[in-house]
Amino acid sequence: MQPSAPPSRRTVVVVMAIVGTFVLLAAAGAIAWFAGAFDEKSTFDAAPAACAPVEPGLGQLGTGFTTTTDATTCVVMHGERTVLRISFKLAPTPADASSALRKTTEGQATEVAGLGDLAFRQGPLTVFRISNLMVLCVVMSTDAELKDAGTTNAQIRVFEAGLAERLAGS
C-alpha cells in the first residue's frame, strides 16, 4: 500500500481562509447581538394625545359616539353614558412594555392573538402593546347598556383592533 500524498499547500490555504471567514462572521454577529442591534426598536417617543387615535374609529362602534378627555384618559361616550375608557402609557422599550404587561396580567388574563404586538383580555378589560406603547381599554357599560347605545362587545373588539392598526401605522 502506497502512502497518500499530503494535501497541497493551496488547499490548506483555501480551507484556512474559509474557516477564518466563518469565525469572523460569527464573532461580528455575536458582538452585534450583545450590542442590541437585533432588538426591536421603540416606535413612540411620547404617548399620543388622549383621543387623537381613538376618534377616527368611532364609526366602528355605531352612531352617536363622542369622546372627551379626562386627565390623560380618553372617554368614549354615548349620550351621557360612559362606554369606554382608553389610556396610553409609554415604556422605555418594547421589551419593557411586554414585561410590564405580562407581569400585570399574570394568571389573571388570557393572551389575545392578533391584537397589537402583545395583548391580554380579562372580562371588560383589554390591554395591548404597539412597540413601546401600552394601551388599556376598559368597557364601562353592561351588555344591556351597550345594546341601548347601539353597539355590542363584538363591535368593541373590532374597534380595539382598528385602534391597534392605527397606532401601528403611526
Short description, anyone?
The protein has 170 residues and is of the alpha+beta class. It is built from four helices and seven strands.
How does this model look, in words?
This protein has 2 domains: 1-38; 55-169, Protein Transport Mog1p, Chain A (3-Layer(aba) Sandwich). 36% of the residues lie in helices and 25% in strands. It has helices at 9-34, 94-105, 143-149, 153-169; strands spanning 65-70, 73-78, 81-90, 110-111, 118-122, 125-130, 133-139. The mean pLDDT is 86.
**What are the secondary-structure elements, in order, as H or E?**
HEEEHEEEEHH
Number of strands: 7
Average pLDDT, rounded to a whole number, is: 86
| Broad structural category | alpha+beta
Pick out its properties.
single chain, 170 residues, alpha+beta, Protein Transport Mog1p, Chain A, seven-stranded antiparallel sheet, 4 helices, membrane
SSE topology sketch:
Elements: H1 9-34, E1 65-70, E2 73-78, E3 81-90, H2 94-105, E4 110-111, E5 118-122, E6 125-130, E7 133-139, H3 143-149, H4 153-169
Antiparallel strand pairs: 1-2, 2-3, 3-7, 4-5, 5-6, 6-7
